[in-house]
């Protein structure tokens, strides 16, 4: 049995000494890596206890901040949050909801979302997230499949849109709307319920109790409900908090805090929100991801760490360079970016014992460029951000090194809904740029014979929800969950994800091609929004590319081009020349049979509304191939 870390195992900064993965080889290759847990598994209690434990231990500690109508932030103490959770839980009980009932939440990233989550658990309920951008059909399917008896929407419009479908939802007895004040009314209604009722309901919950049913994005078909227990979340967040102690337990400088803007409907944002409550890290919510709104919220809240997806970090970098280019400072920007990348790589080498670290000249160059560029990058994120937890897709070595050199440490991770978020993460003080890190403590990662990544650990879900089969259907009877992703482990147990098993292309010549590395590289180009690599059963590999409106606007201004509709740039020779150079650079990563021979520029971008992207921004390949069949066939003339 793995032995949890003890206080004697802590390093000088108060964090646990890194326990390196134990690796196993087969045929000369590392096929399995595991790291023992940093904390023992929870044997009793549930997520419902967290607000009340915080209120007991540190009643005056500010655990959340709530944005007001004027844009200002009001702190919420542990005692205040526990009181609000208790009142709302009693309101749900007063409305007749019983333990085990499912309650769906359809809202953006708001304070009410987190409040409802913990109140529902305190009442013994099971929460079911619904993306606020979901179609009526998608919403109805999730409500039907989960058997939800209640739905909380953010807006009256969302509730009204579901009106025609109510006849098909016999289980749905309650529909509450946040903007109509229904959450406050529920809390008032709870006055008729004794506190003891909530205490009793919390008391019967345990680590194995079902906490939530989270539906996958549905890239390959109808969404499936992942059954996550209270113990799954606690295994995940407890080990993440201990491992990422510079993020959650900073001993010096600003009080740890984060502004959450990724969807709480997605397990990544939800897991970190729970970790913040668990660690008593100040948590704020930003409902709008529109650049002006988010930048204003970041400036006002000034978080110390953030959650992000690679696409957002690419946009920050590309926008900064575009601003520099408009001001005639493109060359200094590129020099500063190069210094940051070399600095980040030198730090990595020192941490791995393969180099002395940044030399005197490199340190001087970084100091020179810090006020000119790096401080501006940090300023755009609020000014105090020093850590970013990044997931969703590979970030890439170049960008990770740049941010490290600019003074922002990136903790890149990998996981799925089925693993309650991260299954691997970059360890503090020992990053390996371009990988998704080591197994999270308490996790085992195995590479199957066909390259598929398999996972085992306390955070791996119980199974998929199937009301027709009596509730939960186990997905991995042998204890290893097949992720559907292809990856490899290096000699030290760092994992690199190379693609999706179902997305591996096999050309007519029999060459296996993983599209993800090419797609991720091209998506980082400032003129490219989305990219899909194709070639299954075809004589060669091609790509469908969509244009980034902001990038194109900047390129047009810098090249003296008049504004034209996006669809007129599909065959523009200058645009094609720029894109061809980007494709040529991407092709340097792969062999010739795997390289992109031809590409087509599409007249529109992929959107969730058109059915081309999931709510978590992953492409739905089948829908794209069907809707742009003419462009696909044009890449393969007969």
UniProtKB/TrEMBL annotation:
<feature type="domain" description="AMP-dependent synthetase/ligase">
    <location>
        <begin position="53"/>
        <end position="465"/>
    </location>
</feature>
<protein>
    <recommendedName>
        <fullName>Acyl-CoA synthetase</fullName>
    </recommendedName>
</protein>
<dbReference type="InterPro" id="IPR020845">
    <property type="entry name" value="AMP-binding_CS"/>
</dbReference>
<dbReference type="InterPro" id="IPR000873">
    <property type="entry name" value="AMP-dep_synth/lig_dom"/>
</dbReference>
<keyword id="KW-0436">Ligase</keyword>
<dbReference type="Pfam" id="PF23562">
    <property type="entry name" value="AMP-binding_C_3"/>
</dbReference>
<comment type="similarity">
    <text>Belongs to the ATP-dependent AMP-binding enzyme family.</text>
</comment>
<keyword id="KW-0443">Lipid metabolism</keyword>
<dbReference type="Pfam" id="PF00501">
    <property type="entry name" value="AMP-binding"/>
</dbReference>
<keyword id="KW-0276">Fatty acid metabolism</keyword>
<dbReference type="InterPro" id="IPR042099">
    <property type="entry name" value="ANL_N_sf"/>
</dbReference>
């Amino acid at each position: 049995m793995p032995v949890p870390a003890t206080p004697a195992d802590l390093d000088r900064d108060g964090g646990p000494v890194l326990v390196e993965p134990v690796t196993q080889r087969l045929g000369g290759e590392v096929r399995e890596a595991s790291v023992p847990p940093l904390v023992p598994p929870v044997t009793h209690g549930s997520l419902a206890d967290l607000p009340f434990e915080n209120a007991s231990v540190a009643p005056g500690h500010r655990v959340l901040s709530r944005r007001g109508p004027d844009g200002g932030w009001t702190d919420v103490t542990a005692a205040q949050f526990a009181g609000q959770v208790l009142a709302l839980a009693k309101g749900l009980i007063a409305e007749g909801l019983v333990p085990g009932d499912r309650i769906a939440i359809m809202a953006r990233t708001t304070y009410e979302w987190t409040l409802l989550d913990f109140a529902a658990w305190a009442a013994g309920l099971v929460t079911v997230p619904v993306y606020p951008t979901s179609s009526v059909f998608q919403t109805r399917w999730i409500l039907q499949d989960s058997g939800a008896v209640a739905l909380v929407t953010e807006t009256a419009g969302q509730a009204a849109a579901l009106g025609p479908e109510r006849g098909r939802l016999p289980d749905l007895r309650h529909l509450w709307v946040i903007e109509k004040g229904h959450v406050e009314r529920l809390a008032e209604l709870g006055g008729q319920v004794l506190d003891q009722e909530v205490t009793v309901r919390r008391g019967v919950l345990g680590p194995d109790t079902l906490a939530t049913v989270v539906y996958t994005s549905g890239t390959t078909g109808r969404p499936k409900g992942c059954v996550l227990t209270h113990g799954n979340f606690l295994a995940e967040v407890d080990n993440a908090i201990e491992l990422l102690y510079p993020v959650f337990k900073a001993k010096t400088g600003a009080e740890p805090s984060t502004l959450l803007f990724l969807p709480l409907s997605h397990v990544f944002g939800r897991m970190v929100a729970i970790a913040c409550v668990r660690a008593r890290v100040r948590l704020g919510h930003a409902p709008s991801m529109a650049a002006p709104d988010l930048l204003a919220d970041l400036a006002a809240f000034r978080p110390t760490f953030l959650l992000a997806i690679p696409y957002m970090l690419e946009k920050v970098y590309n926008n900064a360079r575009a601003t520099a280019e408009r001001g005639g400072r493109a060359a200094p920007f590129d020099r500063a970016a190069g210094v940051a990348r070399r600095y980040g790589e030198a730090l990595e080498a020192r941490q791995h014992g393969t180099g002395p670290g940044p030399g005197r000249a490199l340190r001087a160059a970084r100091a020179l460029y810090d006020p000119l560029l790096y401080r501006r990058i940090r300023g755009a994120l609020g000014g105090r951000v020093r850590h970013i937890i990044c997931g969703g897709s590979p970030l890439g070595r170049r960008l990770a090194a740049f941010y490290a050199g600019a003074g922002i440490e990136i903790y890149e991770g990998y996981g799925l809904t089925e693993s309650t978020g991260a299954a691997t993460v970059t360890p503090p003080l020992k990053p390996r740029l371009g990988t998704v890190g080591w197994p999270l403590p308490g996790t085992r990662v195995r590479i199957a014979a066909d390259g598929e990544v398999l996972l085992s650990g306390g955070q791996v879900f119980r199974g998929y929800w199937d009301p027709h089969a009596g509730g939960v259907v186990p997905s991995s009877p042998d204890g290893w969950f097949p992720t559907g992703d292809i990856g490899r482990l290096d000699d030290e147990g760092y994992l690199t994800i190379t693609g999706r098993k179902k997305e591996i292309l096999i050309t007519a010549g029999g060459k296996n091609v993983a599209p993800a590395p090419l797609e991720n590289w091209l998506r980082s180009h400032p003129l490219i929004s989305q990219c899909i690599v194709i070639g299954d059963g075809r004589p060669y590999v091609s790509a469908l590319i969509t244009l980034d409106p902001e990038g194109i606007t900047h390129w047009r201004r810098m090249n003296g081009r008049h504004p034209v509709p996006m669809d007129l740039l599909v065959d523009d020779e200058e645009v094609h020349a720029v894109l061809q150079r980007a494709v040529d650079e991407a092709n340097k990563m792969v062999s010739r049979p795997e390289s992109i021979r031809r590409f087509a520029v599409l007249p529109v971008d992929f959107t969730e509304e058109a059915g081309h992207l999931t709510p978590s921004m992953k492409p739905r390949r089948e829908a794209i191939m069907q809707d742009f069949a003419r462009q696909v066939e044009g890449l393969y003339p007969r």
